Amino acid sequence: YQRRVHGIYIFHMGDKKEPQAAVKPVAPLPTANPTPAPAPVKVQTPAPKPVAPTTAPIKVAAPVAPPKKKNVLVQNMWNFICGGLAGMCATCTIQPLDMVKTRMQLKSEARTAKMSTLGTAIDLFKTEGGLVGFYKGLGSALMRQVVYATLRMGIFYSVLDVAKDKYNHPLNPLEKAGASLCVGAIAAMAANPFDLALIRFQADGTLPVNERRNYKNFADALVKIIKSEGFFNLWRGATPAVTRAMAINLGMLAPYEECKARLKKVWGDSYPTYIASSFLAGFLAAFLGLPFDNAKTKMQKMKAGADGKMPYKGFFDCLAKTLKNEGFLRYWVGFSIFYVRVGTHAMLILLFTDLLKYLIVGRKQSISQPYNLISLE
Question: Rounded to whole angstroms, how far apart are CA atoms 247 and 103?
Answer without folding.
Answer: 22
